[in-house]
Amino acid sequence: MDTIPAAARAMIGQEAVEYFLVTDRDIRRFAQAIGDPNPIYSDETVANNSPYKGIIAPPLICQMFAYTDCPAGELKQDGSPKEIDVPLPTDKVLGGSSAFELGEPIRIGDEIKVTKKIIDIHRKSGRSGELYFVVVENRWENQHGQLVAREVASYINR
Q1: What pLDDT score was predicted for residue 2?
Q2: CB distance 155 to 134 below 8 Å
């Protein structure tokens, strides 16, 4: 018996696409925020003499482009992003797991295409009741169609 609500099941496979232009400020601020002083993220002389031949972004900057900005009042009470707001009979969402694959480095001026898709929803019984697992794939590509990163993440709805 399928216990995933039809409205939730209908979301499986649907894609949402957004585009972001990467600026030098994005790269500098992200490197500062994560406390990474590597000069390849900010010093043109060092970056130009590196194997990358220019400034690149820290690999996980793509996470900055994973979720749509929206007013806090539009989020669920637990603050989870709209992209994982799936109509399930639950109150809270917790991060479960995340697996990353990295590709080409992200550079200043790259236009990043983000494709977000729910690839699975399944249910398990837990000690505190029913748990619903929402599995999301995020894919980031540059303007040349090259993969810069791919993530498969699981969220636990309870």
Answers
A1: 65
A2: yes
